[in-house]
Amino acid sequence: MNVLLVMIAAFVGYIVMYRLYGRYIGRKIFMLSSGAKPPSVELEDGVDYVPTKKEVIFGHHFTSIAGTGPIVGPAIAIIWGWVPALLWVFVGSVVMGAVHDFGALIISMRNQGKSISDYTAKYVNSRTRFLFFLIVFLELWIVIAVFGLVIAIIFAMYPQSVVAVWVEVPIAMVLGYLVYRKNKSVMALSLWAVAIMYVFVLLGPYMPIKMPIVAGIPATGVWTIILLAYGFIASVLPVTALLQPRDFINSHQLVIAMTLLVLGVFAAAFGGHLEMVAPAVQLAPEKAPAMWPFLFITIACGAISGFHALVSSGTSAKQVRSEDDSLFVGYGSMLMEGALATLVIVAVAAGIGMGYTTKSGETLTGVAAWTTHYSSWAAAAGLGSKISAFVDGAANMIMALGIPKQYTLAIMAVFVASFAGTTLDTATRIQRYVLSELFVTLKLDFLTGKYTATAIAVGSALILAFATGASGSGALKLWPLFGAVNQTLAALALIVITLYLKAKGGFKWLVAGIPAVFMAVMTLWAAVLNQFQFGSAHNLLLQAINIIIILIAAWIVIEGVIKFFQTDDMSDQDAEVVTVA
């Protein structure tokens, strides 16, 4: 019953904080205006700038920021104990992550939908803008290459998920055609779309697809190539053709998956089969880094993530149809992700104890199940290990509803893979925006075209993915940098938001300034510790890139502090126009 009470308390807390803190920030801090003309209306082009109903854009925004992030992070950070993981998810999402996401969204909407790396020049200076571009490019470069591999790993581990994940694509395109070309009801048709998709989810266990070796390339490599090709196509299509309808379907998937998980927690708790088998606090797990500061860069999505600022100021700001909708999309999506991360913590801290099958075929329950999977940092650190901890734990809880495990595994695997796919194509589209803005700045107009910029985004990710061989896992060489890079980006985004609010006058800047200081300290601290670790391992590549990241981050922080003490009241700053073609 303790597990059930923890979940209920967290969910009630999210609802209360949205209504109190979220609305306060929207009305009193950012002063949302229903009369302001958003870029989706001002620059509507039917491709990237498209005014969209808040329910639809909420689905896109949430599935883009979520992906496997709120699954992978909590599933590994649980090794320090479920209490610190849960506290960081709740506090981080409410007072840091949601402010970060919403702030990046509304500032972008007031600057023609430009990316945060681009409008940094306006609120800090042009030097900082270029450095910000470098950090953003590095993050997206790793994300695109790694998420192709993540989905490939899911397909390899759960072949029953393959058919449903790919069937979703044509279903979404038909949905988009009927809604935007034939003016049909999006809600009614999307429910039918989800129902058809779930027919294939249930058929999945009977028609698993295992990718064979092709031309000497192993399954993960083949899938990575296919997925990056998909990312190219998806990112150049109009958002109404695939991105929006697919994400709306995924938002329904979220409701179904979270409802099943919540009901599963109730059923398992009342059945007496659910208890926390993970330690409440474990400060020194075997071979794990120190909880301070690494907890705060291990759990990113679910608490606060720099990638979210890229989505907010990349695709979502070009589609939100009014400032009034921005709070629901920006702040609300982050709290929803916190709720999902809470369920992930419950699944890996309690659900895994309901039944865990080892590689040797032995079935374990209780503390023994958790201890076996999380025997050390190394044992739980792999991508596959993180994903399986959640999928297996969640499937166990849903089984308490009487659903056979073959179906619960298929449902959760499709859920995870679909969300990862959304992150992949959204990241590719954002990288295209970022590169186009950069090339405009550098006056390389011949590289700013939609297809050219996307080809560079996908091509560079492909090179990284296959840099170490045919398996497509080359990006894992840079993966140890990702946590610090991502959270450094979050800190830098908060600095920009702080400067934006500081220029408004008064003490409004505190809502972003305090989180900015906290994240800057934690991430730079972690990056410095990483530098020593990479040095002891004689990893020159990670040492070189990491020191560049530290220097860039320190530079931007210093520039931000200088600007902070120079900023005067500029209440009309939103009237300025960023003239980037």
What does this protein structure show overall?
- Helix content is 70%, strand content 1%.
- By secondary structure, it is an all-alpha fold.
Number of helices: 22
Shape descriptor reads globular
Structural class: mainly alpha
* SSE order: HHHHHHHHHHHHHHEEHHHHHHHH
Mean pLDDT figure: 89
Strand content: under 5%
Helical residue percent band: over 70%
What summary fits the major beta sheet?
Answer: 2 strands, antiparallel
Summarize the structure.
The protein is built from 22 helices and two strands.
Task: Give the topology.
Blueprint: H1 2-29, H2 39-42, H3 54-66, H4 69-77, H5 82-109, H6 116-123, H7 126-157, H8 162-180, H9 186-203, H10 219-236, H11 243-270, H12 291-298, H13 306-312, H14 323-349, E1 356-357, E2 363-364, H15 366-373, H16 377-380, H17 383-399, H18 405-441, H19 450-465, H20 479-502, H21 510-536, H22 540-566
Antiparallel strand pairs: 1-2
Helix pairs in contact: 1-5, 1-11, 1-14, 3-11, 3-14, 3-18, 4-14, 4-17, 5-13, 5-14, 5-20, 5-21, 6-7, 7-10, 7-17, 7-18, 7-19, 7-20, 7-22, 8-9, 8-11, 9-11, 10-18, 10-19, 11-17, 11-18, 12-21, 13-20, 14-17, 17-18, 18-19, 20-21, 20-22, 21-22
Features of the shown structure:
581 residues, mainly alpha, two-stranded antiparallel ribbon, 22 helices, 2 strands, 1% strand, disordered C terminus
